[in-house]
């Protein structure tokens, strides 16, 4: 069976782990409708495999998980309702995709690429995927990020992965458009912290106008960058998604909502015709 090419990549803001159970979060409804309203519905064939770059897997060097059989569901969060620890996303692993990712990275000059044959899916992967593709029948591979590097590094890493789209691979970066957990707060009037709003607005303008170089250098060019992202783990998946989209990719804001006064669920689609 010949797989259709995938023209787009995605950056999904997965926000809080409670996205897995909390129907009051608008982002949950968005992700549950993703297959029909964003991806193309039943008339579009599913991707051959899914490659997820999650903000919850940090390593010194690029690492892929190559699981044979079913991926374990990793509960890498603490102090949440017990029902969340009973959720499962038994997607099959994608060892062939892991091998392909390693081949591409190695051939392009990445001198060290590791393979982890045991690691399952962290919540940056399984929480959005259980909403987007609930059947859990599409093979999934994860690729780690390197927080000791910068945005340009991750953008270039993404560029190396662009050929995967021709092979029917869906590439998803999973993080959060803003991610300062110490600044989260309950707001009676639903107000959003000014720094979060300013950073989020800057990001939207930069992406929709194709100013990807500004996003690569967001630390110097974005307002309140260090407040919005005290640590870059949830932002670098965006850079990978942009790079993997290809030259002259067009960005589209596919969802936007806020939670806890500072957590942006802004999610984007990047398409190259």
State the gist of this model.
By secondary structure, this protein is of the alpha/beta class. Helices cover 30% and strands 18% of the residues. It contains 10 helices and 10 strands.
Quote the beta fraction: 15-25%
Specify the helix fraction band. Answer: 25-40%
Rounded radius of gyration (Å): 17 Å
Please count the helical segments: 10
Category by helix and strand content: alpha/beta
- What string, H for helix and E for strand, traces the elements in order? EHHEEHEHEHEHHHHHEEEE
Q: What's the main sheet like? A: 6 strands, mixed
Q: What is the strand tally?
A: 10
Q: If you average the pLDDT, what whole number results?
A: 95
Please state how the strands of the largest beta sheet are arranged side by side: 5-2-6-1-10-7
């Amino acid at each position: 069976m010949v797989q259709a090419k995938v023209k787009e990549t995605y950056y999904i803001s997965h926000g809080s782990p409670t996205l897995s159970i909390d129907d009051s979060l608008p982002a949950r409804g968005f992700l549950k409708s993703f297959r029909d309203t964003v991806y193309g519905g039943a008339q579009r064939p599913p991707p051959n495999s899914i490659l997820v770059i999650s903000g919850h897997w940090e390593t010194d060097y690029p690492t892929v998980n190559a699981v044979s059989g079913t991926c374990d569901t990793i509960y890498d969060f603490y102090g949440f309702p017990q029902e969340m620890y009973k959720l499962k996303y038994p997607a099959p692993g994608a060892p062939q995709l892991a091998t392909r990712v390693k081949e591409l990275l190695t051939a392009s000059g990445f001198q060290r690429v590791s393979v982890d044959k045991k690691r399952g899916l962290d919540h940056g992967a399984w929480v959005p995927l259980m909403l987007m593709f609930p059947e859990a029948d599409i093979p999934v591979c994860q690729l780690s990020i390197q927080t000791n590097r910068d945005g340009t590094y991750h953008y270039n890493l993404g560029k190396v992965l662009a050929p995967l789209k021709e092979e029917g691979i869906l590439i998803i970066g999973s993080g959060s458009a803003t991610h300062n957990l110490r600044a989260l707060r309950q707001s009676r009037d639903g107000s959003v912290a000014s720094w979060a709003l300013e950073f989020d607005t800057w990001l939207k303008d930069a992406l929709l106008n194709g100013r990807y170089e500004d996003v690569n250098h967001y630390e110097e060019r974005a307002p309140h960058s260090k407040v919005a992202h005290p640590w870059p783990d949830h932002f670098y998946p965006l850079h990978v998604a942009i790079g993997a989209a290809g030259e002259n990719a067009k960005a589209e804001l596919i969802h936007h909502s806020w939670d806890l006064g500072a957590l942006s669920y802004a999610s984007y689609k990047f398409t190259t015709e």
